[in-house]
């Protein structure tokens, strides 16, 4: 299992997703998976993402649901994330090439024992 899930809610964003996809393929650290929650798109989002899954450059999970709005897509993502960490990167954004590495590097500096004590 990957340490980080990057999730992206998408609604008719096929024209924007390629830039994000390319930025994820080019990450310096590949310890992540990408979860795309398609919130009822009527454009080519599904075909685009399924094509990328076939390419097998990065691990991608695609979930289609009837339109529920941004909050519904986030809720679906949280129900399906299995990684320790997650972050939302919107469909019109991209990750800097070292974005995953920076997130995981910062995570390693956190004293997890102290974090657990704060939660209790």
TrEMBL record:
CDD domains: Glyco_tranf_GTA_type (cd00761). SUPFAM superfamilies: Nucleotide-diphospho-sugar transferases. Residues 5-108 form the Glycosyltransferase 2-like domain. This is Glycosyltransferase 2-like domain-containing protein. It comes from Flavobacterium chungnamense.
């Amino acid at each position: 299992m990957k340490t980080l899930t990057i999730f992206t809610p998408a609604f008719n964003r096929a024209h924007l997703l390629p830039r994000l996809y390319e930025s994820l393929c080019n990450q310096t650290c590949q310890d992540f998976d990408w979860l795309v929650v398609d919130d009822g798109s009527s454009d080519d989002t599904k075909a685009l993402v399924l094509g990328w899954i076939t390419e097998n450059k990065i691990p991608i999970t695609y979930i289609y649901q009837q339109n529920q709005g941004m909050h519904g897509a986030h809720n679906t993502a949280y129900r399906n994330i299995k990684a320790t960490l997650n972050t939302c990167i919107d469909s019109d954004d991209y990750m800097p090439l070292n974005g995953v590495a920076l997130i995981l590097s910062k995570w390693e500096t956190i004293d997890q024992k102290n974090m657990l004590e704060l939660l209790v």
